Structures are given as C-alpha cells and as structure tokens.
Amino acid sequence: MQHIIYAEWLPIVLGCENAAKYDLLPKKTGYFNGYDDRCDATMSQEMATAAFRFGHTLIRNSYPRMDGRYWDQADPLQLKDSFNNASFYYNEKAGHMESVLYGLLGANR
Question: RNA-binding among the record's keywords (predicted)?
Fold first, then answer.
C-alpha cells in the first residue's frame, strides 16, 4: 500500500517534478525489510488535519458499475447506500462485485 502511494499516487497529485524535488519517489535499491521497534510511527497533527482532509475530498458520491468493456452495466453505486451494506456485491443483475471493480477502474476514461 505504501509503495503504491509513493510510486503512483503522489506523483499524480504533486506532479513528478515536485515528488522528485522532495525525494518522495521510491528508490531502486536500499529497501529495508525488517522491523525497527525504536522507530516512532505516530502521526503528526498536521498530517491528521490537512492531508487526511484532502484525501477525503477525493471520495466520490457515486461510482459507476461497468462491464469488462467499460460500458455502464447498471445504475451507479451510491456511496451513502453502501455503508454497512454489502448486498450490492452480490446483485447478479447489476454485475456482482466485478461491475464495481470495473467501475472503479474505468470511472475516469
């Protein structure tokens, strides 16, 4: 998850030049695969208030349901209706979970 954020998401949000300027792009080598219990992993107040608020503005109110050709397959999934309700994943007429995943992939095409 962390690699996806640094390798794909941040360069889109900040721009490749800014991500490189502030050394936010992943290194080719030098990864640490261990665990350091002395490392402080707490989150700063600035991160909690600013960055998380920005991230939440990227959430949409609805998500399309698409087929494998990225054509609309059913009515969009309303985010407000999906909280604590996984039944839309099992709706055969709407394309099951696959239609939601294709919708997430094809939403900006």
Answer: no
